Amino acid sequence: MRITMRPRTSLRPMMPWWNSAREARAGKESHCRQRAPLPKDILALRRAATPIDPGELGGSAWQAAGASFGLFMAGAIIPVLPFIFLGGSHALGTGPAVGVSLALSTAALFFIGAGISLITGVRLIHSGLRSVLFGLGAAGLTWGIGHLIGVTIAG
Questions:
Q1: Distances from the Cα of 38 to the Cαs of 93, 136, 147, in angstroms?
Q2: pLDDT given for residue 56 in this prediction
Q3: Rounded to an integer, what distance in angstroms lies between the CA atom of residue 72 and that of residue 142?
Q4: Within a 10 A sphere around the Cβ of 125, how many other Cβ atoms?
């Protein structure tokens, strides 16, 4: 199943409510007397606008948790692999493992972003670069905070 963003078609069920709210704000008394949608009405509108059927998804919470854990572990090992196979110091800027780790992490982040673009319909390059930007930004922020508070890794 492919999920795409189509604002004009997916928001069509909500248009009558928006139009009535807009007219009510304009001062038309007939619309002012109508009740505001209840949360259950909003959820029904959202379900009508979203092409995902929860019954088709299948799976369980335990399967989702297991898959999340497995994928997290697979992603976490990528920056560590060069240090296992190439050796070298863990300090930033020393040894070949640092550069290889940075290159592998950047490539993995880009491919994950590119894979996400297949689901979301966003341009591949945009999604890939956004993942690289946020991933490397988070890594840099983590390293910076650790450096500020004096964290060291004894090897």
A1: 57, 42, 50
A2: 72
A3: 17
A4: 12
